[in-house]
Amino acid sequence: MSLTALALTLGVKARALAVGFDRVAIGPAGPPVHGEAFGRWLDAGYGEGMEYLQRTRAERQEPARLLPDARSAVTVALAYGPRDDDPSWSVVSRYARGGDYHEVMRPRLKALVDYLREAGGSDVHSRAAVDTSAVLERDLAAAAGLGWIGKNTNLISPRAGSYFFIGTVLTTAALVPDGPVADHCGTCTACLDACPTDAFVGPWVLDARRCLAYLTIEHRGDIADEWKPAVRDWLFGCDVCQDVCPWNRKATRAGEPALAPDAPLGPLQALLELDDAAFRQRFRGSAMSRAKRAGLARNAALMLGNRGDRSAAPALRRALGDADEGVRRAAAWALDRLGESPTAG
């Protein structure tokens, strides 16, 4: 270990905390430990519907494809919960209730890239990555010691739980690694047992096709009838496997104001009736925009039907004329669930 490497390591860690990240750890930038397992997961079809994962498969298994000669990975955490939000937001995953985390994290990661170049010299090249980049960020973060990968496939810190975003800076600089932490899940299966759709094939293996987070955010069009009853408590995302994790009793509270909602979410019926322009206006700058207007309306319709809210029948009937088939089918299903004729006045 050289004094130059130690100084640069301490410096980039200090800068990470100074720009607002809650935790930082350094690890190697080599092929991820679970790269082959990721390949088997894709081959099994568990990521079906997320074609971008298949397209970037090689890059995710070899970080040097993104940054040639990468030697180190600076991994950072930004806490997003728990927090005392308006109760109307309980149907939205904690991470998506405020501003889009990508916009919060990117300038801070860029500050680390700039620091490494300024402090390390012109020969140091770095590249920042959030979850939109082709990086297995959980693997890199686990190798660095930011936490361990739990049975629910989330990264868990023994001091901070799992409610945090992960950011990565790949760099050609030789930094001093921290080293991984031990797995502390033990015999606990709380997350596997609590999943509303039994989406876990087994510990550490999630079938995303039946996960509520995938179904309510990524999935386009109609949701299969077997999963419609599960869309009752979650409009966007799902936090169940994290909520029941014992390690989240120690979760770091969110301190970033930009991640907090600035107003109540509002009633589900109002969300069901948003047009495209109103949706863009309402959720501009929010991670919830990823579900698209039709996805959010579809989810709202299913929730209203599952909750037995008969006052929603008029709005659901209007949704029968929606331009999106998934919304129309969700509205018809919800009306049937309420014991209402889709054609009643």
Compile the SSE list and pairings.
Layout: H1 3-18, E1 23-28, H2 35-43, H3 51-55, H4 57-61, E2 72-79, H5 101-120, E3 126-129, H6 137-144, E4 148-149, E5 155-156, E6 164-171, H7 190-194, E7 200-202, E8 205-206, H8 212-218, H9 240-243, H10 268-272, H11 276-283, H12 292-306, H13 313-319, H14 325-337
Antiparallel strand pairs: 1-2, 2-6, 3-6, 4-5, 7-8
- The H-and-E topology, N to C, reads as HEHHHEHEHEEEHEEHHHHHHH
Average pLDDT confidence is 94
Which residues form runs of ≥5 with pLDDT under 50? none
The oligomeric status of these chains comes to single chain
CA gyration radius, whole angstroms: 22 Å
Number of domains: 2
DSSP helix count?
Answer: 14
> How many strands, what sense, and barrel or not for the largest sheet?
4 strands, antiparallel
Question: What does this molecule look like?
Answer:
This protein is an alpha+beta fold. The protein folds into 2 domains: about 170 residues, no CATH class; about 90 residues, no CATH class. The protein is built from 14 helices and 8 strands. The strands form 3 sheets. The chain has a 4-stranded antiparallel beta sheet, with helices on both faces. β4 and β5 form a beta hairpin. α1 runs antiparallel to α5, α12 runs parallel beside α14 and α13 runs antiparallel to α14. It is elongated and about 75 Å long. The model has no long low-confidence stretch (mean pLDDT about 95).
